[in-house]
Write a structure and sequence with these properties.
three-stranded parallel sheet, DNA-binding, alpha+beta, four-stranded antiparallel sheet, homodimer, 37% helix
DNA sequence: CCACCTGTGAAAATCCTGTGAACGCAGGGA
DNA sequence: TCCCTGCGTTCACAGGATTTTCACAGGTGG
């Protein structure tokens, strides 16, 4: 969101976080180019912040990012202004003061519709080690060969890969892949991790992808074979990790990170 | 629009006509089924007209017609009501009295987004394997012989072929071919896929076109018979795919997935 | 060394798809 | 008006594929 009304921003940010959204606050115009890079679902903007560049800015944003939900929220405005904004490409126009809950609901409505349009929704393929994970095919590939994952297997893998480097708790994984809360004592996650490991192992034997964190859950992090997982120094040299980003960013400070390689 | 406020309705109708829109006025709830038949871009509704069925009605309309722009316009309302409406699936919520020009602008904003989702119907003929799919005839041909597809069969085939290579979920297929949300447990898509396969098989026995992805949906990808699909690494070509052209020797993309070829 | 966790393999329970046929509806023709 | 035909929808069943559940073995932490 682009706004300077710190009270409104703060409240909204808090509620957004609570709802599980990720949001970023800016106090001035952000170049459309940068907006693209941010991969936003929606943008909430108060044109008052933009000064007399406002219309131009809205126009540019709307035309450069036709799939971005664009919501204007500002003080008093005339019908003519609202109509102009909407015609320019804004999806909604709210008047301050407005209830944060309503702002969220409108942002949600706008994003929902946006998402629906793009049926190629999460069509961003992920690359990890020798793996290529393609949501458009609900399948993962190693050297163009399909791993033949079932739907659940794929969704689990995709989730883990999306959160590459993060340790995810079983409950969290279950919640996000199965869509509802995990029953006490359910071992489904473990079983599917085993199935995944088996297929990964058979297609990409020289890499280790899924690591166990005892008492917690799992972490996805492609590692070429050979590192014995004694201690991991801040990235001396990875044999090859083309699009590996943020490698040294986080020293796995946590306890031990045993990586028992399923072997 | 569904409203009884004749003044508002009349003014709006006149402006809408002037803007080149077609609009129909109702004074009571219209069954979602009928809405489907009306092929609407957007629906403006005053829930006050619907009495205590309002929420239920909104819910049903929104879930049955996810692609319909749904705008609520009513008298005073609480934040909670607006939030509820928006969460239920409404795309916008205006408060009366509202300027007709703004109402139009909002309807337009909502429809614009809706339209954007739909790919522009180019009506371009597609070629795939031995198939030639011609939207201008609502028919597919193999060596200039018509497959004698019915309307639904054709539309299903065309949709699949347009998204060649992509796995489409049943819900999505249904949504896009039938025009409204698929009811739980509906098997129509399967039945039509079977009909298509039968006709395709009889006209082009040496090719396989429609692949099943268990638990997900279907994928259209013409493959000449006989490929056992162990591993295929042809040229590592990119999926540029401008328009399908006669691929007499096109190396079918990835490996197999289950392609249980009905036999 | 003990209590707990996780890896494994296989059996049991579910879910999904292919298939053939019945049903209802609407249009055309007699 | 009645009958016939084509088309889309719905049903029930069978064969598989996939998920869950179990019991047990082995590893981990304290």
């Amino acid at each position: 969101m682009i706004d300077t009304d710190s009270g409104f921003v703060t409240v909204l940010a808090r509620r957004a976080e609570a709802a599980g959204w990720q949001m970023s606050q800016k106090t001035g115009p952000v170049p459309p180019r940068d907006l693209v890079a941010m991969k936003l679902n929606a943008l909430l903007v108060d044109p008052a912040v933009l000064g007399d560049q406002a219309w131009d800015y809205l126009d540019r944003v709307a035309s450069m990012l036709p799939d971005l939900g664009l919501v204007v929220c500002t003080g008093r405005s005339t019908v003519a202004q609202r109509v102009r904004g909407l015609r320019l490409g804004a999806d909604d126009w709210m008047t301050k003061p407005c209830h944060p809950e309503e702002a969220l609901a409108r942002l949600e409505a706008v994003s929902r519709r946006r998402r629906r349009g793009r049926h190629e929704h999460e069509a961003a393929p992920l690359a990890a080690g020798e793996l290529e994970i393609r949501p458009d095919r609900f399948q993962a590939f190693v050297r163009d060969e399909a791993l033949d994952l079932t739907r659940r297997e794929f969704e689990l893998l995709y989730l883990l890969a999306e959160e590459r480097g993060q340790v995810l708790e079983r409950e969290q994984i279950y919640q996000r892949v199965w869509g509802y809360a995990m029953a006490h004592g359910d071992r489904s996650v473990d079983v599917f991790v085993r199935k995944l490991r088996k297929k990964l192992e058979s297609f990409s034997p020289s890499w280790t992808y899924i690591h166990t964190h005892f008492g917690i859950g799992y972490r996805f992090d492609p590692e070429p074979a050979g590192i014995v997982a004694e201690e991991i120094h801040p990235a001396p040299e990875q044999p090859e990790a083309p699009q590996a980003d943020e490698p040294a960013a986080e020293p796995p400070s946590q306890a031990v990170h045993n990586t028992f390689t399923a072997g």
